[in-house]
Here is the input.
Amino acid sequence: MFISPAYAQAAGAAGGANPFMQLLPLIAIFVVFYFFLIRPQQKRMKQHREMVGNVKCGDTVVTSGGLIGKVTRVDETEVQVEIANGVHVQVVKSTLADVRTKGEPANDVAKK
Here is the structure.
């Protein structure tokens, strides 16, 4: 009824697999994450930094809160935005979601 000790020991010794083959699935998962998640996010961050860095007076901007206005003053980390006649607000540059230049029209989804 009992398994002999020699048979039980022989079964455990047969599991010597290549260490590289054990790491291959982890490496493949990292590569997939890099190309589908990490790399596109880095590209988006770089484009946002360039967009925020190129803000100048007269540009129409959209904040992440949804305010749309015209830039009247640009500082190192903040911009002053006129959202109505005589109404100026200070906005942190990194919260700008979109920058539209003076002559650029808004993208209208309804026209498509």
